[in-house]
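pipeline/complex-builder :: batch 7 item 3
reading input block
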Amino acid sequence: MRSAGNTHAAPSLDATSRLWALAATGLCLLVLLLQLPAGLAWGTAALAVAMAGLSWRRPVPGPLRLLLAVAIMGGVLTVMGMRFGRDTGCALLAAMLALKPAETVNLRDARSLLGFALFAPFSAFLLDQGPLTLLLATLGVSTALLALSRLADAEVPAGDAPRLPTRQHLWTVGRLLLLGLPLMLATFWLFPRFPTPLWGVPERALAQPGLSDRMSPGGWLDLMADDNPALRVQFFGATPTPDEMYWRGLVLWDFDGRDWTRARGMPPLPDGAAPALPPRWDYEMMMEPTEQRWLVALDLPLAAPADARLDRDRTLTARQRMNGVTRWRVQSTPPADFDVALPPLLRERALMLPEGLNPRTRALAAQWRREAGTDDLAIVRRAMTWIRRDFAYTLETPLPGRHAVDEFLFDQQRGYCEHFSSSFTTLMRAAGVPARVVVGYAGGYRNRFGDYWIVRKMDAHAWSEVWLPQRGWVRVDPTAAVAPERIFDTLEDRLGAAGGGTLQRNPLFDAGDWLRRGWNDFVLGFDARRQQDLLRRVGLSRLDTTGLGTVFALAALLALGGMAWLLARGERERDPLLRAWHALGVRYTRLGLARQPHEPALAWAQRVAASHPAAGATLVPLSQRFAEARYAAAVSDIPALVRDLRRHRP
Amino acid sequence: MATTLRQRVDRRMERLARPRQPEPLPIRLDRRRVYVLPTGFGLFYAVLVGAMLVGALNYNNNPALLLALLLASAGLASLIVAHLQLSGLCLDALSADPVPAGQPMRVQIALSARDHRARRGLRLACQEVSGVAPPMTTDAVVAELNLPTHRRGWLDPGRLRIWTTQPLGLARAWAWFWPRQPLLVYPAPESHGPPLPETGGGGTRARQQASGEDVHHLRAYRTGDPLRAIAWKPSARRDQLLVREFEQPVGVEVELEWSALTALPGEQRIRRLAHWVDLAEREGRRYRLRLPGDTVLGPSQGAAHRHACLRALALLPDA
């Protein structure tokens, strides 16, 4: 016995508990660090390790901590280029969390350390929602809960008694998580969602790799090696063949000799301007987060889906940045009579080229124009024949010089889609054929497991559109003329080209992606709209917030009740015979005939019989049988006795 | 001493909390008398998870929302677990060996539970003294508290608080036992009191001294023998504890009389008599205690007689 007195001082922290708290913090921090720029992540990790080591015996002095904090904030802001964005905030949080072990002295500090650590996986989700982050975050949070359990155990002075083994802590925390699961899921599906956010999501300070509204030949090498999905598509009805799968993303008009960029200030498509064409393809796309606003769509979308806008170029722009998985239902048609009446202003813009660059291309184009007269189509055909005959596909290209198009067309004649589309478009413009560059994705791969199509980031593609009289904008893909297999590829082609890779087109991969899609569908892409869909499917249509709140409250109460019941069940008497016997005792206690603690069963029954002969007539033999079943070695028919005990009413 | 707000709140809670009067043993905690409130850390955790929930809902960031919900529901489940740590617990007995007033009293608290769930980190508090119950994995455990004693007579331990912050330290579950089980406190013996009053003839003194030295024989140790009677050297030789049996002091009964101590005020007298009782026991002499109201105890000797005498002294009305 030790009387600790009624002290309010926080209990001290033993070495093992400290280790647990630090390990949990480390795991949580790791989740976040994986999403930060490498240099910053390594720096933060080193700081965390140093702080944990330095403060092992005694806390790091206050002035030093302050100095470090200021230095770190400065460092983070410098790395982030003094821009404050979502990732800057996360980096600051990571740095502060790395510094926090320095002031962890007692048990209370360890708890607040763990509390802050829980924020790290949360912020990691603001940057990435991939499976690795999810897995690590789950691990980190579980470890943090384990550490909390350990701290709660360490809080009680135990003297020489051994601490609870880790296995027990695992069981405690695992049970808590399992018990909480129904409530968590009920809340997740049913809690009223905000249809529009209360405040905006801060942007990232550093851009993510991916398709953007700027294309410079040679810039997509990383993207072409990224086999993560960019979108998953499910077709309803007709499915396009792979060589029809041109997912148009952005239309780039402006060329400065090096970069193609999107034209600013394009007016939106006026209502009714789109010709009423019958839809050819009806499909739903699930886009992975891009942090951008532009969407892709097959050829020409007929109308803008909700929360998006259809632009003059017949491209789609979402109202909000796509920070999470989003879902879009679109109907499209192949291009025909696309913008046949081209306004002069746009025509002029589609012919603009930077002055003084690429003289050889201009000369060749002028020569072709002279020879073709007014036949634009002949010029296009001539260029394509040339490219098909003399050009080759490669991902290994030298850095472009000043006259990049000249170099490509006349010297190298090897490159990939960015070079082909850029040079072809320049050539067309020089020859007086209105042309523009389109970036997006081409092709796709059908997942046989779930019967949907996957478009990967490596399917990123750039092609050209030329404007021909009476026909409007027509797609021309010079890369496809050279290496069709590199565009509408199947995975086999790519594997053959790469000499075998980690990616195998096997059922396991398909099943994995199918699971991922399900996760995207039910968890990542779940929002207010999807919630209404879900409720409609179970027959609850048009629920307002109050109605939804009621449904949620009911479900939550049910889940809470279930939790309590499950737990209470665990604490009841295990032996059914004793349980029935105790229940019987409770019934008699209500009549004021409680069995005294010291009273044997039979003596009690006889006492009851003396005052209540009617009840006693059954109770006495019952208690006799109970005593025999309980204490005599002879095995009697226990289920029958339990049944009789339960049935007996005084 | 100024009472802090916390103490005042605690006292108010105590008055409202069940039970509202003492109860006979055994006392079983049912779910209606177990209280659960978040700890300071629990509140911090709630604010943290709340902030996460609002943020995740606003950004419609579903993994973040799931994470926040996971933490929230685990926290809620821990409240229920904390509650169940206490409900079903039974206080079977409360006992303590009497001690002289002023010395801490070792109170033994027997706890059991009908269900076989493991209970850890149960803490007990009674009159500003707190202690820890051993982990309950088996059926019953005995926890101990060292209660301070101030005056002789019946000590009412009052309410016994039992609490735990298991399993995560987010919530404190507590309950009150109020056993109707007074504990006896002996009067504090006078320190450095005078030797025993000698009422017999002059020969007794010599006999008494002889009794300290002349060992009549040795016999095996029996429970209750005073430690000082153990013959350590012979015990070591024989591998068993041996006790010196002195020559039975004959005719050396000591008369301890309340009425003979008229010079002392009441409480002093009680202390003097308690001192003499102890002294007589130590010297192995038979003694008789005469108290007001014709109460005569003895003559006798031994633990039972000592207890009877000290109990009678302890329960004398205040002078």
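note: The radius of gyration of chain B is 28 Å.
queue -> next item
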